[in-house]
Amino acid sequence: MGRLASKVAKLIRGKYKPNYTPHVDCGDNVVIINAEKIVLSGNKMNDKVYLRHTGYPGGQRSLSAKEMYDKNPTRLVE
């Protein structure tokens, strides 16, 4: 997932273009197909935790990668 993310980041920033400028949005988009076929190595599916906050006091919520994958597999790549 990390290698995929670094390749996508390079494409989105437009670093492959000859007229690349860091402060300009080049307007490129990336669509990842087959995101539901992602595989995490080792025990990361159970151990990796994604945190989010609702904005309310005590509103920190956590989901493991397995729970997130079961709900919506494409959210792991977004």
Can you tell me the overall shape? Answer: extended
The average pLDDT value, as a whole number, equals 90
Distance between the termini: 11 Å
Count of DSSP H/I helices: 3
Global Rg: 16 Å
Bin the helical content: 25-40%
Strand order of the largest sheet: 1-2
Question: How would you characterize the largest beta sheet?
Answer: 2 strands, antiparallel
N-to-C SSE string, H for helix and E for strand: HHEEH
Describe the structure.
With 78 residues, this protein is α+β, with helices and mostly antiparallel strands. Helix content is 29%, strand content 13%. It has a two-stranded antiparallel sheet. The model has no long low-confidence stretch (mean pLDDT 90). The protein is extended. It has 2 domains: 1-30, no CATH class; 36-78, no CATH class. It has helices at 2-13, 44-47, 65-71; strands spanning 49-53, 60-64. Strand 1 and strand 2 (60-64) form a beta hairpin.
Could you give a quick summary of the protein structure above?
This protein is an alpha+beta fold.
Describe this protein with a few key phrases.
single chain; 2 domains
Tell me the layout of helices and strands.
Elements: H1 2-13, H2 44-47, E1 49-53, E2 60-64, H3 65-71
Antiparallel strand pairs: 1-2
